[in-house]
Amino acid sequence: MLDRVSLSRLSGCLSRFEMARAYFVYLPKRLLLPNSAPRFGPPIELMTLRPAQLGGMQMKLRYSSGLLVLAGLWALTTTFPVAAQEKGTFKIVTQTPLSGDQSLAGEAIKLGAQLGIEDFGGQIAAAGYKVVLQAEDDQASPTTGVANANRIINDAQVIGVVGHYNSGVSIPASEVYAKVGLTMISPSSTNPTLTERESTKLVANRVSGRDDVQGPAAAKFAVKTLQVKRAYVINDKTAYGSGLADAFAKTLIEQGGQVVLATGVDQKETDFSTILNRARLDKPDLIFYGGTYPQGGLVIKQIREKGLSAKFLGGDGLDSADLQKIAGAENMIDIFFTTTSVPLSQLPAGKAFGEKYKAKFGRAPEGYSAYGYDAAHAILAALEAELKANAALPTRPAVAAQVRKVDFDGLTGHIAFNGKGDIKEAKYVVVTVAPSPSDNKVVSVELVAAPTN
Q: Which of 207, 311, 355, 429 is the most exposed place for a label (fewest CB within 10 A)?
């Protein structure tokens, strides 16, 4: 029997699980199951219940072996108030490079999403669900990203993906998510193809801009502001790098400029002597690079080591504090990049976000940290809307549909998607690179609607 605490009082305080635990775990030491009871292993020595407070009272539980069985059955067949967290768990997955030379950018997106979940997961928790972040390392590799995606879709708790960093990974991985209607929001994948395919039109989204806007913006800046007439155009042969470089070259020519050389290099290449030795003879006004900061930093370094005075311009893949570390602070002369990631200094809530981020993680945010934050916020807003609209457990396709309906002022700007999954309006920024990342200067910020054709 229960000593001094009635079953009715206990049932009002404990969930079904806790009640069963009270009967089967908190038993007198040395009490074993009766010899007649079925055994699924050797006799177990059960622990003694220590004095525990419940409703301000001290109690001990004393049982006979017969009561153990009866009470256990009673506990498992009687309804008790269920704790809110027992409703279930939703997972938001980040898919970014967490190892390798692009890990700084990938980690920044992950941490931004983590902060977003902490800041905006409260309504989901109030509805009785737990929201957790699951970080996946796609290694900036299409093969790894797709393999991760195939595993992720088999976890029923996964309700949305923040990712990927690289367009070349986002595009094939989104085909996998589309099989099960799992929404993905990329903070940084700018290749237009991501949101232009019929096969993924219901699940693929981005909070960043597009290269068919960014590339032309870079070319117009080169011609009108930098007075470029002749340019080298280099890309890293990825979906992102080649797409951006092609968009730049096309507009440069339309603006009256000349592409003296257009070429691609393997993403892992580290020696650009062949191209740069030719540049010493051709003397281009500008070298444009479509790719990411690990390789872009090496290109800048070698340009200056060879004594070339050409200006250097790239896209948002260069937007990292590691650019100066790789290229050398002393080489940051006439270096520029365009980006769809607005610096925190240009955002109304940017300073507060940066301080909060640094206090929590011990480091400053990177370019796309804030976009990881807004991407996670958008998924949570969609999940919350679906929970309010329907009593049933939200399905992946239902949440994906709600993503297209979100409409809120986020950290990076207004968050609302068009029918393709592009953010309706994106900001495009031109930055002059300084020896220290904190001294980079914003040249211009332009708000442009997403292409509709």
A: 355
Rg (CA), the chain: 29
The single-letter code of the amino acid at 320 is S
Distance in angstroms (rounded) separating the CA atoms of residues 129 and 139: 31
Beta strands 129-137 and 184-186: pairing type? unpaired
Phi first, then psi, for residue 397 (nearest 5°) are -60, -35
Backbone angle region of 63, left / alpha / beta, with phi > 0 → left and psi within -120 to 50 → alpha:
beta
Instruction: Quote the tokens at residue 344.
Output: 């925190």
* β-bridge partners, 358: none
Residue 296: CB atoms within 10 A of its CB come to 26
Contacts of 152 (CB under 8 A, 6+ apart): 93, 95, 136, 158, 161, 182
Residue with tokens 């099989």: 179
Token representation of residue 223: 């011609």
Query: With bands split at pLDDT 50, 70 and 90, how would you rate the model's confidence at 391?
Result: confident
Q: How far apart are CA 427 and CA 344, in angstroms?
A: 13
Question: Is there a cis peptide before residue 377, judged by omega within 30 degrees of 0?
Answer: no
The 10 Å Cβ neighbour count of residue 91 is: 17
pLDDT in tens, 70-97: 334 333 333 333 344 468 999 999 999 9
User: How confident is the model at residue 44, as a pLDDT?
Assistant: 29
Nearest to 85 by CA among 153, 118, 132, 117: 132
**For residue 325, which amino acid is it?**
K
Cα separation, 153 vs 203, in Å, equals 13
**CB contact at 8 A, 378 and 403:** yes
Give the list of residues 6+ apart from residue 355 with CB closer than 8 angstroms, or none. Answer: none
State the burial class of residue 384 (Cβ atoms within 10 Å of its Cβ: 0-12, 13-18, 19+).
Answer: buried
198, 414 contact by CB (below 8 A): no
224 and 251 in contact (C-beta within 8 Å)? no
Q: Are 283 and 237 in contact (CB under 8 A)?
A: no
pTM of the model: 0.81
Around 324, how many Cα atoms within 13 Å sit in the side-chain half-sphere? 14
Please give the Cα distance from 328 to 300 (Å, whole number): 9
Asked whether 98 and 339 are in contact (CB, 8 A), the reply is no
